[in-house]
Amino acid sequence: MSVFFYGSAIIAILATLMVITRTNIVHALLYFIVSLLAIAVIFYTLGAPFAAALEVIVYAGAIMVMFLFVVMMLNLGQVTQDQEKAWLVPSIWIGPSIMAVPLLIEVLYAINLQQEQMAHTVIGAKEVGASLFGPYVLAVELASMLLLAGLVGAFHLARK
Amino acid sequence: MFSFQVGSLLNIALILGTVLGAAALLIWVERRLLGFFNDRLGPNRVGPFGILQSVADVIKLITKEDWIPPFADKLPFVVAPIILPIVMLLSFAMIPFAPGVGIIDMNIGLLFVMAMAGLAAYSAMLGGLASNNKFALLGGLRAAGQMISYEVFLGISLLGVVILSDSFSLRGIVEAQSDGWYVFPQFIGFMVFMVAALAESHRWPFDLPEGEAEIISGFNTEYSGMKFGLFFVGEYIGMLFMACLIPVLFFGGWHAPFGLEFGNEIISGLFWMAAKTSVFIGFFVLVRAALARPRYDQLMSYGWLVMLPLSLLNLLITGAIVLMQGS
Amino acid sequence: MNIDLFPLILYGGIVIAAIIGLLVASYLLGQKRTDHASQDVYESGVLPVGSPNIKISVPFYLTAILFIIFDLEAVFLFAWAISIREAGWVGFIEVFIFIAILVAGLIYLWRSGALEWRTTRQMDDRQSIKGEGGVVNIKRLGDKTSETPVKGSH
């Protein structure tokens, strides 16, 4: 299974790099979808099939669809591409990238500190549901409030 | 390797061959049936009764020019038609055709199917967007609005079945129906799912994304040759998939009605599965012949204001009854 | 891992190879020619008018937001449906409140007209009259002209 893990991890990283460097937003979205699918495979190999399915249903199947939907509605064509090209000059991305390098090193160091084997217990949908509607029932309640706020807020923003 | 069990090589080859063959046959069946309903002949020239029509169509499509319009966005233009047939064929991996016949049995089978249905929306959206044609864009927008609206309660309408069978595995769902089909306790869920399935595969009467009277051919206006063929085949594979999924979820899958089993349980199972699938294919074609296309605003309000509350209500009632029986 | 994914991967590989193979076959076998109208946008034989970059009104994106919100709701419901026997009545009450809150949101949007996809023209046209043979003739509100359309007008 570690072949799948590393394979999809590499695909995810490459696809995400392509997302950042594409100037055409539709191409970037396509690579983003590939990246999300690769992450779903990673979840599955780590023993979280429910999370893997939700990753595809919610992120690849809903949020990316919404992005694409908005891209279709605004339909700006060449204008945004030229804008992106103007933004993607080295003087803009080089500073944040240099600052991000120490963070990456820290993350790698932290992962290396933890020499435990990856957990190989499979958490199925039933366990997730039982804990969501058991000890974390209040969190679900709050989530519903958050969703309601999102619904009403989006409506009023769209109406302006 | 050649033992007859779920996931064996023989199984994969047979299922893929059968599905592709059945999809090709389905195109001919639909055209013949529509001809019959419309009191005309339908395709009857190629082979006996025109049964080889799809073979002729494939040969024609392959030898047509592989045309990418110069104004189209090439990468999404090529990717869009590939997505639909792949996603629909991958969904077939979860279908249990008979005891021991199937490609894989995953404990998240139903969620996998839902995920694939969600990804199928990209095909029409990307195709419409990449074509750089305003009619294609309108078709893509219509497809997106329709599919995302109906996807919500496509999922929720199935949850009644999940509650009753206590499983996301499609094989588990079929096995749980050995003592009674779910269509009876889940009739509302079944009706909602039927409508959502028609809308998701944008079959008639929900073919607004391709409404040829208004927007030429919708999202596939600029497509020709094999790329158009892939959209077309993808739609038929999707229809075949829905016709297989409905018996699995609501009509007992391979279980024979009234104890009419015969011979080997695999042969009997395959026979009943095929028979039930055929009934729903006939139903889909009949719906196409009989019903008119709704207006777009009718489609959307119907989805959000009727079907969504209905599926939520069905879910709550099912849950309450199951809990009452349990305690 | 709980199950062997090999059949799915094999099947998926064959499927993807077959579909891409079809496209490659048509690329290799297909005819290649260019006519003087091949490069044009197809608009049913009429020369294309205007730019393809048409703008759609932004409130239409509310559909996408609605979809996201209710898809997330569906995800919580997935988790509940599979664990209903473990969660028991506490879970049921929670789900009931959960659904009630979101349905309240839906009703609010419906009453404030966000779930209205009719165009203003269609809303004006709501007054319809029955014609001969059960045909429904649409008559615009405040339309003073006779029911037969004037020749040449749309």
Q: Can you offer a commentary on this structure?
A:
The complex is a heterotrimer of chains A (160), B (327) and C (154). Chain A has 160 residues and is mostly helical. In chain A, 82% of the residues lie in helices and 0% in strands. Chain A is built from seven helices and no strands. Chain A has helices spanning 2-21, 25-45, 49-74, 78-87, 90-113, 125-132, 137-159. The mean pLDDT of chain A is 85. Chain B has 327 residues and is an all-alpha fold. Chain B has one domain (70-326). In chain B, 67% of the residues lie in helices and 0% in strands. Chain B is built from eleven helices and no strands. Chain B is globular. Chain C is mainly alpha-helical and 154 residues long. Chain C has a domain at 55-131. Chain C is 51% helix and 4% strand. Chain C has four helices and two strands. A two-stranded antiparallel ribbon of chain C has the order 1-2. Classes of the chains: A mainly alpha (160), B mainly alpha (327), C mainly alpha (154).
Topology summary:
The complex is a heterotrimer of chains A (160), B (327) and C (154).
Chain A: H1 2-21, H2 25-45, H3 49-74, H4 78-87, H5 90-113, H6 125-132, H7 137-159
Chain B: H1 9-37, H2 53-62, H3 74-91, H4 109-130, H5 134-165, H6 170-176, H7 187-200, H8 212-215, H9 225-250, H10 265-290, H11 296-326
Helix pairs in contact in B: 1-9, 1-10, 3-4, 3-9, 4-5, 5-7, 5-11, 7-9, 9-10
Chain C: H1 6-29, H2 62-82, H3 84-111, H4 120-124, E1 128-130, E2 136-138
Antiparallel strand pairs in C: 1-2
Low-confidence segments of chain B, given as residue ranges, are none
Helical stretch tally of chain B: 11
Estimate percent helicity of chain B.
55-70%
Q: Give a quick account of the main beta sheet of chain A: strands, pairing sense, barrel closure.
A: none
Report the portion of residues of chain A in β strands: under 5%
Total strands of chain B: the figure is: 0
Which structural class is indicated by helix and strand composition of chain A? mainly alpha
- Largest sheet report of chain B: none
- Give the rounded overall mean pLDDT of chain B: 86
Total beta strands of chain A? 0
Over all CA atoms, what is the radius of gyration of chain B?
20 Å
Largest interface: B-C, 78 and 67 residues
CA distance, first residue to last residue of chain A: 51 Å
User: What is the assembly state of the chains in this entry?
Assistant: heterotrimer
Radius of gyration of chain A, in Å, reads 20 Å
Name the overall outline of chain B: globular
State mean pLDDT of chain A (0 to 100 scale).
85
Distance between termini of chain B?
47 Å
